[in-house]
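fyi for ur records
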Amino acid sequence: MTDPATPAAQPASVVRLDIPGGAGLIHRDVAANGARFHIAELGDGPLVLLLHGFPQFWWTWRHQLTALADAGFRAVAMDLRGVGGSDRTPRGYDPANLALDITGVIRSLGEPDAALVGHDLGGYLAWTAAAMRPKLVRRLAVASMPHPRRWRSALVSDARQSAALSHIWGFQRPWIPERRLTADDGALVAELIRSGPGRTCPTTRRWRTTGGPCASCPRRTARSSRTAGWCGRWPARTASSSTAG
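which gave:
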């Protein structure tokens, strides 16, 4: 009988992007809470686990990984469930389960505890993980996310705070976000690609060659001030599903 904590079998290979993120980074997958999570790590010492916000992935922390390793820490940035190189499971995206993903990764890394550093959504999950598994959280540093109780109170009492998160409420509507992405032959996706420096983005190249929504994208696009963009001249590569070295 299969252990429920063991992730289901994965494809023989996964496609990842070779993107700059600091010399010496080790990329690999770890199993935790019934799923598989991609991590980037560097250094030795007490564990510092870095949790990205939405819609980001491990690369958010590329500079901090190097700085923390130089300071004598084992710095690890993980892709949260459904993001980047981590498993995209059909369910399990509630805050409590995502927090268990984090504490499960700490255990899978063979560490007794970790300092959690979270930004945005990662900050919310850091607060949650510390409350649910306090013995596994040695220190807590959170940016751009107040304590969940204070945040929820502000949502109820401050209309401006609620309005600022209107995009989050939009994501909760069944089917509508997905339909927006596919409407007009993917016009919104094409616009998002145009807004960044995606002239050689693998996704852009594929859509151009298949006649998809980016078939008419310009060959060269200026860096938009609205987005930092992460997809530049970074070739895709195929790696074993057990490692992403």
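The chain has a mean pLDDT of 78. thats all i got for now
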